[in-house]
TrEMBL record:
Its EC number is 2.6.1.-. SUPFAM superfamilies: PLP-dependent transferases (SSF53383). PANTHER family: AROMATIC-AMINO-ACID AMINOTRANSFERASE, ASPARTATE AMINOTRANSFERASE. Belongs to the class-I pyridoxal-phosphate-dependent aminotransferase family. Keywords: Aminotransferase, Pyridoxal phosphate, Transferase. This is Aminotransferase. It is an enzyme of class 2 (transferase). It comes from the Bacteria.
């Protein structure tokens, strides 16, 4: 039966972690990861999450199935977080939201559904570069993949003119995948005025905006990081999609908490969309798991816990900003080429501008691991390793 099965290529990021773990050099540093770790290099358990979890355990609740579309309170609180509690979209019943297994399943469920709607002409435009799984998910769902220009290596910033030009050439009906904030892997985002321009262009060309928001709260805060979603909601666009993840913002990676929201033209359309979302989930994994969603709903559903959670999120964000600034300062003090652009990039990641050869030298000569693309996880920096990383980066880039 399986003799003809070939070996699938390994995941490059997980492969890097395996090499890192096997490295016996003391003082090795892994900047290749995609998670937030604290000053001690640990994944934090947020105190608010811990508190809700202890209460849940103490209550000794039975373990029934959740509905196909997940925990109702979680979905409602998610809508409020994404669109704002006062959003007319919510009042008008235009948003169909379902809890999903992380942001990844939100992407996949939406991809399957959108493919059903579009049929053989399903096309999606993805930023160049983007998170690798975007391509895998939409390709596997049967989409034709297109790219639009995004990152400009010369300025280490956004190629906005190139982006507009490429989006302007897309066929009507094409899905356009956009990172809401903290673009993975570059850390380069659009500002509000640029979002306005992109949204107007998508409307004019009848392109479907698909926002992936995996890092809400990791750049400026819950509200400002939702700018793209809020502007879309206010734009009069009759349809768009949002996939969101709580993996990072609640430090709940392994609990797999995310949601898919599809916005329709009216209540009837949203009701039909939700029925299709449920049908798609049912045929994939039947229903999502309960624990992580109960934790998120427990925190977001309490005014007091929610306020404390925003502070905890603020501490993660502040540490990332401090590491960016510290890294840039140290590199400057060491006489390295200008790395000040790292301060302008947002979120956990930075496209450092290091070449593949420089990344290899970091690994071989200094036991410092980064992705071949030059992406580093700024959250993996701390006061204990900052000097060593800055010295090594200055050495390979000098
Ligand atoms: N989108 C982007 C841009 C991401 O970086 C990630 C996580 N690495 C996801 C979606 C998926 O998140 P989750 O782990 O919740 O499935």
């Amino acid at each position: 039966f399986f003799a003809s099965v070939e070996m699938a290529p390994g995941d490059p990021i997980l492969g890097l972690t395996e090499t890192y773990l096997a490295d016996s050099r003391p003082g090795k540093i892994n900047l290749g990861v995609g998670i937030y770790v604290d000053e001690q290099g640990r994944i934090p358990l947020l105190p608010t999450v811990h508190e809700v979890e202890q209460a849940l355990v103490a209550a000794g609740r039975p373990r029934g199935y959740l509905p196909i579309d997940g925990l109702p309170a979680y979905n409602q609180l998610t809508q409020q977080l994404l669109f704002g509690a006062e959003s007319p979209l919510l009042a008008e019943g235009r948003v169909a939201t379902a809890q999903t297994i992380g942001g990844s399943a939100a992407l996949r469920v939406a991809a399957d559904l959108l493919k059903q709607v579009a049929g053989t002409g399903a096309r999606i435009a993805i930023s160049n570069p983007s998170w690798g799984n975007h391509h895998a998910v939409f390709r596997t769902a049967g989409f034709e993949l297109l790219q639009y220009r995004y990152y400009d290596p010369a300025s280490h910033g956004l190629d906005f003119a190139g982006m507009l030009e490429d989006l302007g050439k897309l066929e009507p009906g094409t899905v356009v995948l956009l990172h809401a904030c903290c673009h993975n892997p570059t850390g380069v985002d659009l500002d509000a005025a640029q979002w306005q321009q992109v949204i107007a262009l998508l409307q004019e060309r009848r392109l479907l905006p698909f926002i992936d928001m995996a890092y809400q709260g990791f750049d400026q805060g819950i509200e400002p990081d939702a700018t793209a979603v809020r502007l879309l909601a206010a734009s009069g666009s009759e349809a768009f999609v949002v996939a969101n993840s709580y993996s990072k913002s609640f430090s709940l990676y392994g609990e797999r908490v995310g949601a898919l929201s599809m916005i329709g033209a009216d209540r009837g359309e949203a009701t039909r969309l939700l029925s299709k979302i449920k049908q798609t989930i049912r045929a994939n994994y039947s229903s999502p798991s309960a624990h992580g969603a109960s934790l998120v709903a427990g925190v977001l559903g309490s005014t007091e816990l929610r306020a404390r959670w925003e502070q905890e999120l603020g501490e993660m964000r502040a540490r990332i900003h401090a590491m960016r600034a510290g890294f840039v300062d140290k590199l400057a003090a060491l006489g390295a080429p200008d790395f000040s652009f790292i301060n302008k990039q947002a979120g956990m990641f930075s496209y450092s501008g290091l070449s593949e050869a420089q990344v290899r030298r970091l690994r071989d000569e200094y036991a410092i691991y980064a992705l071949d693309s030059g992406r580093i996880c700024v959250a993996a920096l701390n006061r204990g390793n900052l000097d060593a990383v800055a010295a090594a980066v200055a050495a390979v880039s000098g």
